[in-house]
Design a protein that fits this description.
The chain has helices at about 15-25, 75-85, 105-115, 115-145, 145-155, 165-175, 180-190; strands at about 25-30, 35, 45-60, 65-70, 90-105, 195, 200-205. By secondary structure, it is of the alpha+beta class. The protein folds into 2 domains: about 5-140, Jelly Rolls; about 145-205, Winged helix-like DNA-binding domain superfamily/Winged helix DNA-binding domain (Arc Repressor Mutant, subunit A). The strands form 2 sheets. Strands 1, 2, 3, 4 and 5 form a 5-stranded antiparallel beta sheet that branches. α2 (about 75-85) packs across α4, α3 (about 105-115) packs across α4 (about 115-145) and α6 (about 165-175) packs across α7. The longest helix has 27 residues, at about 115-145. InterPro entries: cNMP-bd_dom, cNMP-bd_dom_sf, Env_Response_Regulators, HTH_CRP, RmlC-like_jellyroll, WH-like_DNA-bd_sf, WH_DNA-bd_sf.
Length: about 220
């Protein structure tokens, strides 16, 4: 069965693998589809076989922030927490490119966690790794200046320039308002670091590190 060789199943015995083949469900998700929304009950554990899904939160004021992405051979960490705690989702997931997942029903997930040490270790390792990245995201949002974060985001993608992205999409990536991103990008353009076009950013000559050459904050 497609998906039976997902990394989450490494080390699982043949009996459990056969049950996964019988009870696991392959689902094809088109680009743009919402996989779950805040408040939805978790129906099972989705394991991405191919494609990409974006998990994000929206504040009461309408601002969005990307929490993480689930790529090929990865697990939806938020679903793990919802299944173990018996609570609904507190974020939403949106398909970014055509995606195929294997959905493990809730009962099968519980049985695998209890019967297979290998599966349990894989799931908890995935949960721990994602928790670490979310802690880093909290640190970024809470303690770093937005100009530094924006410069870092652009610098990491300099080899992909030109970037075909809107200011609104970039604001969601960074968890801020579109107006903030637009204002900072205009300042970056004034300094000769980027060139701005409609739906496109050309990276020209960003400073080599978040503090710039003067040792102060990048727009300090």
């Amino acid at each position: 069965m497609v998906g039976a060789d997902h990394p989450a199943f490494a080390g699982i015995d043949d009996t459990l693998r056969e049950r996964i083949r019988r009870e696991g469900r392959i689902v094809h998700l088109p680009e743009g589809q919402k996989v779950f929304r805040p408040g939805d009950a978790c129906q099972g554990l989705p394991l991405v076989i191919e494609g990409s899904v974006r998990v994000q939160m929206t504040s009461d004021s309408g601002h969005e922030i990307v929490l993480y992405r689930i790529g090929s051979a990865e697990v939806c960490t938020l679903s793990i927490g919802c299944l173990m705690a018996g609570r609904g989702y507190r974020a939403e997931a949106v398909v970014e490119s055509p995606t195929m997942v294997m959905l493990l029903p809730h009962g099968l997930f519980d049985d695998l966690m209890g019967a297979s040490r290998a599966f349990r270790r894989q799931i908890m390792a995935s949960y721990g790794e994602r928790l670490e990245t979310l802690m880093l995201l909290v640190e970024e949002v809470a303690f770093r200046r937005m100009d530094e974060r924006l410069a870092d985001w652009l610098r990491e993608r300099a080899d992909q320039s030109p970037l075909h992205i809107t200011h609104q999409t970039l604001a969601v990536e960074l968890g801020t308002a579109r107006e903030v991103v637009s204002r900072l990008l205009k300042e970056f353009e004034r300094r000769g670091w980027v060139r701005l076009f409609r739906g496109r950013i050309d990276i020209v000559d960003l400073p080599p590190d978040p503090t710039g050459t003067s040792g102060r904050a990048i727009l300090g």
